[in-house]
Structures are given as structure tokens and as C-alpha cells.
Amino acid sequence: MKFQRENGAQLWNSNHYCSEETMSIITDIMDFWLPDFKYGTEDCAKKYSNASNYIEILHRNLKTHYDWLEQNDFSQNTIIRHLVMPNHVDCCTIPILEWIAENIPEAMVNVMQQYHPSHQVNRATFPEINRRLTSDEFMRARKHATKLGILWEPVS
User: What is the pTM of this model?
Assistant: First the structure.
């Protein structure tokens, strides 16, 4: 079958680092959204993913989706995935959680601890993230999400 013939639920599983045109095409097509929000600073996004204007693009796209839901009286259907990285709770996790709480407070957040170093992460290239997340780092992330009133527990 070349084209969908029945009305099935559509899921957008994405890093959400995409153009405005992409967002305008998919916004009213998708039923469920699983965007990643990985970095809280431009420096981290550039260093680890070579992603320019990451914060601006993620904020724009998440807000575009959220505003569309509000304007069209849809219930929230978004789970933002945030992978907590070692040595990045202060620079990435906390700013991300604070932005979500302030700008898209009804979104659920999956605060993830599954980070493990692989591929190009080694002692020579990125020694600061060449380890697993500590339980203290993960607990700080969870406590901050709870303090901000973010809905994270049912999806983590």
C-alpha cells in the first residue's frame, strides 16, 4: 500500500531541529509529538552536535506546536524527551526545564538517565561526558522538574 488508507494516529519522533517550513507542513498532520530537547546552551549544541542556533530553533518549534494546540483547542499530546548528560545539569538540564515550565507548562517531559558514552565520546575528544550519569546528577534533574511543577513522573 503506497498511501495510508485509514485514519491512524501519526507520531512525530524528532530532534525538532527543523525548519519553519517543516513545522508548517507537519503541525496539523501529527497527532502525537516526541521532540528531543537536548542542549540548554548554544555552546553545548555546537560542541557536541555541530548545531547552530539550536536554542532559537528548538524554542521556536516547540512554541509553534504548543501554540497551535492551544489555538485549536486540542489537549496536550507532547512528551519532550530530555537526556540528562554528565556534567550538564547546570548548563543544559536546568535551563531546559525552566524554559518548558515557563513557555509550555502542559507538556509532559521524559527526564531520561540513559546516557552512555559511545562512538566519538572518548577521553581524547570529550572527556567531560565520557562517563555515565551519576545518581546525584539525575536526582538533581528530577528534583528541579518537580520544583517547577513539570509533569515528568508518569513518563519517566
Answer: 0.88
